[in-house]
Automatic annotation (TrEMBL):
This is Actin-related protein 10. It comes from Dissostichus mawsoni. Belongs to the actin family. Pfam families: Actin (PF00022). The keyword Cytoplasm applies.
């Protein structure tokens, strides 16, 4: 709990900031430099070995309500340890979040926990707030998908969004298949056993740990050679020398031999172009081409990459190299006059950048003239804010910052 909580701003307590991701949830208090807790977005019920994912869009509303209720209860009373009735809530969401999920989550907060108000903030816009700029092309490399959205003068350019189902989930699926097919396991009694025979299946937590500890993104030249050797049917293309194999311990009794060829080639699925010539790198250029022509220069010079997948070693370097290679193709060179492409380094790790943006904005001190004027400058543009209140349900298009007193003020969320 924040020190001296409630002594400033008329005794009002700081808001709770929650980033409900598909894999992990970040939660903490507004005005702080980082989330207090990062926990898996799942719940476990007695008698069930497999955890239940919280972020599900294809289940009925009643079942979703029960899952969200149990998970939010876990956040408040096991981690944050605060009274829900005392604090407003800010939820970081994706622009592709279905309305029924948002409405069910809002119902849980108001009906079950009786919070004063709930605000939903788009993750891409909040990431820009950490840099002190108004315009950027934001790529969110998450667990289930990679989503690109241009932000111009604090306004999302919605017709220009691009997305692909490539993220941590796709990497885990590919890695699990490679481990089962190519790797072996040593035990106390035998060596060289296949994975299905030795351990049956590999848990998702183990797959993720192997990815984080052993795998990396190759540079552009090496990656292109790996792709060429992979798709060369006659076998004439030579693959670069692979890195050393890694022995990964399992349960303290078994050792999984992770081949070096898996370590450097796994992440190529993010950059391999599919039948429609799409990859995570082309998403940025395709989004730029969809933007108004007078916004492309400033957007191309302000690229922001967030999300847990962006934390992979070598990812940002490879992404920028891929973009600079693709921009020379006729498809993009004629539409993009500026070839200057730069990636910002936000003041937080990629997986917490959006959370920090909300924390900074909702934790502003209205008594500070400079901070207040800066915040007004950022929101004095047409930005759709979605606010929920027990007495008022509002979805409005704001040209200037104006709130009714019953909805509280935007300066403190």
């Amino acid at each position: 709990m924040p020190l001296f909580d409630g002594l400033g701003s008329g005794g009002e307590k700081t808001a709770i900031v929650i980033d409900l991701g598909a894999a992990y949830t970040k939660c903490g208090f507004a005005g702080e430099t980082g989330p207090r807790f990062i926990i898996p977005s799942e719940i476990r019920k007695p008698g069930q070995q497999q955890a239940i994912k919280v972020v599900q869009y294809n289940i009925n509303t009643e079942e979703l309500y029960v899952i969200l209720k149990e998970f939010i209860h876990l956040l408040y009373f096991r981690h944050l340890l605060v009274n829900p009735r005392d604090r407003r809530v800010v939820i970081i969401e994706s622009i592709l979040c279905p309305s029924h999920f948002r409405e069910t989550l809002t119902k849980v907060f108001f009906k079950q926990f009786e919070v004063p108000s709930v605000v939903f903030a788009p993750s891409h816009l909040m990431a820009v707030m950490t840099l002190g700029i108004n315009s950027a092309l934001v790529m969110d490399c998450g667990h289930t998908e990679t989503l690109v959205l241009p932000i111009y003068e604090c306004t999302p350019i919605l017709p220009a969004w691009e997305a692909l189902p490539l993220g941590g989930k796709a990497i885990h699926k590919e890695l699990e298949g490679l481990l089962v097919e190519q790797c072996t396991v040593d035990t106390d009694t035998t060596t060289g056993q296949s994975v299905p025979v030795a351990i049956g299946s590999i848990s998702e937590e183990t797959v993720e740990d192997i990815k984080v500890r052993t795998c990396f993104v190759s540079d552009l030249q090496r990656g292109l050679k790996i792709q060429e050797a992979k798709f060369n049917l006659d076998g004439t293309a030579e693959r670069p020398a692979h890195p050393p194999d890694v022995d990964y311990p399992l349960d303290g009794e078994k050792i999984l031999h992770v081949k070096g060829s898996i370590r450097d080639s796994l992440m190529e699925i993010l950059f391999e172009q599919d039948n429609e010539e799409k990859s995570v790198a082309t998403l940025i250029l395709d989004a730029l081409v969809k933007c108004p022509i007078d916004t492309r220069k400033v957007l191309s010079e302000n690229l922001v990459v967030i999300g847990g997948t962006a934390m992979l070693p070598g990812f940002l370097h490879r992404l920028l190299a891929e973009i600079r290679l693709l921009v020379e193709k006729p498809k993009y060179s004629t539409a993009l006059a500026s070839k200057s492409l730069r990636i910002h380094a936000p003041p937080a790790k990629p997986n917490c950048t959006a959370w920090l943006g909300v924390s900074l904005r909702s934790g502003e001190d209205p008594s500070s003239t400079y901070e207040e004027s800066l915040l007004h400058r950022e929101v004095e543009c047409a930005v759709t804010l979605i606010m929920y209140s027990p007495l008022l349900y509002v979805i409005e298009q704001f040209n200037y910052l104006q709130f009714d007193i019953s909805t509280q003020t935007a300066l403190t969320f």
